[in-house]
Give the backbone structure.
Amino acid sequence: MGTTLFEKIWKNHVVTDRDHESLIYVDRLLLQENSFHAFDKIRREKRAVRNPNQAFAFSDHYVPTRNRELGLDGITDPEIRNMVDLIASDTDAYGIELFGIGHDYQGILHVVGPEYGITQPGLVIAGADSHTSTHGALGAYAFGIGSSEVAHVLATQTLWRSKPKTLRVTINGERRPGVSSKDLILFLIRTIGSGGAVGFAVEYGGDTVEQLSVEARMTVCNMSIEAGARAGLIAPDQKVFDYMKGRPLAPTGPDWEKAIAHWSSLKSDSDAAFDREVQIDASSIVPQVTWGTNPEMVVDVTSKIPDPASEADSERQGRMIRALEYMGLSANQSIQSIQLDRVFIGSCTNSRLEDLRIAAQVLNDQSCRIPTMIVPGSEQVKRAAEEEGLHEIFQRAGAEWLAPGCSMCVAINGDKLGSGERAASTSNRNFEGRQGQGGRTHLVSPAMAAAASITGQFENISNYAEASSWNL
Amino acid sequence: MEPLIKLTSRAVPLPLANINTDQLFPARFIKKPRAVGYAQYLFHDIRRTDDGQLSTEFPLNQEKFSESKILVAGPNFGSGSSREGAVYALYDSGFRAIFAPSFGEIFASNCLKNGMLTARLNADAIHQIQTELTTTENPELSIDVAEEALITSAGTKIGLDLDPFQKHCLINGLNEIDLSLEFDDAITQFESDYRKAFPWITS
Ligand code: SF4
């Protein structure tokens, strides 16, 4: 019997085994400002960092999106400034490269990793952040870890892992106009639930996935964690090889040929067996909107908010009632009648160049009815967008064009929703208080968020996409 | 790390599903140094009413459950972000063991690294224990890690299915990095073979 993509990568990285666990070699470690506990541990236990050149650190969670030209001085809150300072001094002390403020490649760790070539097919990548699953879009086994495990990788370049089960999600069928990879993953989470993939490494495949661009695939793998999976993977193909070419850390010369040969072998054999299979028909999917406080609380933009009264399971019913209360919504209210206060386009889920191009098509010659923040995922994305003049489209429409970082996705750099404020957001978590205490989040695609900015409500972007020449 | 061998303590039921790490420990507190003590941040927002007062409905705020070291939680407990502060907040509040039908994976592994037991029990068993804790005057549970057993205040004994390594680490209070460094030679050998096979990765 054949083996799966995941098993091939796993097998390449096993140092040794014990009981149910294997000691897995970690090729790359990704760090961010919140990694200070890990450095504290390393210092306290007087350990050496084994391979500083295999770790990469990013200033992204706490960096301000305004006044960036002032550098650190642009941060007025001393606690926030301390976080940006700490990662700089910790990485400096251990000789780890930092993509900090002022670096040409500063940005969100999951955006910069691929664009710098840190992320490559076949690697094991551990990141101090749960959305490290993003990097699986290039055919890597990538997953988030907590600070104790970050310290473990710093000291040993390895991690103990019990082998996850494998789940294959096959998505076939042609997407309707305006239906993006964000809609595909929201639909999947809605289908299998936010705990649906706990214990599994998910491999995405099928025609629809193959047709997605590399950036769009990242959006799918990114939100694997919202379905409970630590890692999501897609077999690398020619699109990925083309994407890799010329990245600062991509192999060159004879290594490039060797790498391509290796990468080409990274796919599940036709007779490989998965522990679980899920099939999705993409042609039936319309734009998705979350209505509640968990990413599984998702409905079609054309439908109504579900009624807890018709939920048989009493626990689920209780959760729905509480979510409606927090969100200030009522059962059976139509999604398109919800009045929004703000729009946030950004985060490691949807802040890449393609996302911004889509938003720009929708916002072109329009004006934003509600305050709209557009936060590119990295300096490189920002620069590329500006070269294409996208920022002018945004600014003409009245949107704010800001400096790269996590911003209002996690609301710890000062960008946040006020209590009771309601936002359409292209990020990945709609938990209570995630985007600011009392803030209310509806997760959508970039096209949906851009359209919402124009009318202050959710529109069925499919209808517009069909009638226009947009390439969404 | 402090070993966990046997524990008898008050236990608190938290019958809510999908409690995520943002609820356990809101992101705005991540930047606090551990030295300040993270107990004050545990469930910070969800244990309070809109006007900022501790809600008497939230089990952890009730006198009956004060000083609990054991938490009996709902399914998918600890889902969401990888922030280990969620575990620090539980630990600094005195918790040493959590039972639930299922856990967020990163959270569960963070727990082990801090000497905190996470054990899965089926939903019916959890429900029963939660009901018992709520109705009894003496909400207490006993855990024996070596025996892999949980005993309720009514005397019911429930078997636990612990991972052998998890059990080993908890009982001995092991520092995992020291343990792994015993494999230093194997890692070095692996690394040198690996770099030969895939020279572009680490050069
Ligand atoms: S953008 Fe949001 S989800 Fe992504 S790394 Fe930053 S905080 Fe985490």
Observations:
- The mean pLDDT of chain A is 96.
